[in-house]
Design a protein that fits this description.
- The chain is an alpha/beta fold.
- Helix content is about 40%, strand content about 15%.
- It contains eleven helices and twelve strands.
- The strands form three sheets. The chain has a seven-stranded mixed beta sheet with strand order 2-8-7-6-5-3-4, sandwiched between helices.
- Helix 4 links the parallel strand 3 and strand 4.
- The longest helix is centred in the C-terminal third of the chain and has 23 residues.
């Protein structure tokens, strides 16, 4: 099988699984318990936290169940904690649903939400962001890498723009950590990481925090410094630390991305959706007059796995909100397919993918014309 849906989820590293199994076997006690086994579990938990602080360059690490919870905590936690300072939040139309949906809820609760538009490449206009900033803007939330088309937001420029303000910057780095270098000189105030996107485990994630006040959105036993109640999974935390430690950008992805761009440019009915300069591990293309599901199904028959868009919305029959926002020509809107590499992808798989795609494309077009 050729697996090219790594932006949806990745296969866990063997070392990550080994860490999880060892921790589950030896450190299974509740880290909040006062007995020896509880203390040993807490020691491992705090060791994982220290590693992640060092690796990411943040003051605090709050373990969560994944990226969705971390995004909710960043948005709602920051909004509730800072509502006396202001109620204005800025984000973007192409953010992940785990950002857009909490923002809808906050809007219903009296917060003022501004969503930036994007151009045909998925890029925001920094001047629009500058004009949107107000004295009562408490938070700007923007993803590092768009999960559907790979557009990279200019976070260093945005960080500098906010430096003289009291506005917090939250970055959803779910698609960026382990794929792009992290600029330790331009860290945001809040950073979301998800384990299963970087060859870690599902149901593991974190919110990294620097000098930002948060209100809890889960109430209970007061774990994670009172910000995120609930018994912390020590094995998941240890496995996440291992996954982040192993994660590193792959230079081959840039070459493979360029190779596939050249390949798709040879088809008259294919539009390359991902812009030049996008994240090298994501390449979205669209076929005119063909539904993306048809391509995905055809490739699956060839034992090749790709996706139509975000896995969170791929079963929704509506056009992706990202595709709508970038104004993709109507004949291409239903035909978008996303190809995404991971640390285990090989060049031979890229070569084989091209052969399989040619066969599927010919079959689809042959059916259309018959």
């Amino acid at each position: 099988m050729i697996y090219l849906d790594n932006s949806a989820t990745t296969k866990p590293h063997a070392e990550v699984l080994d860490t999880f199994v060892k921790a589950s076997t030896q450190y299974y006690a509740n880290p909040a318990s006062l007995h020896r086994l509880g203390n040993e579990a807490e020691d491992l938990l705090e060791s994982a936290r220290r590693q992640l602080k060092s690796l990411l360059g943040f003051e605090r690490i709050i373990f969560t169940s994944g990226g969705t919870e971390a995004n909710n905590l960043a948005l709602r936690g920051a909004a509730y904690a800072n509502k006396e300072k202001g109620r204005h939040i800025i984000s973007c139309k192409t953010e992940h649903p785990s950002v857009l949906e909490p923002l809808k809820q906050l809007s219903n609760e009296g917060f003022d939400i501004s969503l930036l538009s994007v151009d045909a490449t998925g890029a925001i206009d920094l001047e629009e962001l500058k004009q949107a900033l107000r004295a009562d803007t408490i938070l700007v939330s923007l993803m590092q890498v768009n999960n559907e088309i790979g557009t990279i937001h200019p976070l260093a420029d945005i960080r500098r723009m906010l430096k003289s303000t009291r506005t917090l910057l939250h970055v959803d780095a779910v698609q960026g950590i382990g794929r792009l270098p992290l600029d330790l000189n331009q860290l945001p105030d809040l950073l979301t990481v998800s384990g299963h996107k970087l060859h870690g485990l599902k149901n593991s994630g974190l919110l990294a925090v620097n000098k930002a006040e948060l209100a809890p959105i889960l109430l209970g036993g007061g774990q994670e410094g009172g910000i995120r109640s609930g018994t912390v999974s020590v094995p998941n935390a240890a496995a996440l630390a291992k996954a982040v430690r192993l994660a590193r950008p792959d230079a081959d992805h840039l070459k493979w991305n360029a190779e596939l761009r050249s390949f798709f440019a040879g088809f008259k009915d294919i539009h390359i959706v991902s812009p030049e300069g996008a994240a090298p591990n994501i390449l979205a293309v669209a076929i005119a007059g063909v539904r993306g599901e048809t391509v995905v199904s055809g490739l699956q028959e060839e034992n090749v796995i790709v996706s139509t868009s975000s896995a969170c919305s791929s079963k929704n029959k509506q056009t992706s909100h990202v595709i709508e926002a970038i104004g993709l020509p109507r004949e291409y809107r239903e035909g978008t397919v996303r190809i995404s590499f991971g640390a285990m992808t090989t060049h031979q798989e890229i070569i084989e993918f091209k052969k399989h795609f040619k066969r599927v494309h010919q079959l689809i077009k042959g059916v259309e014309q018959s």
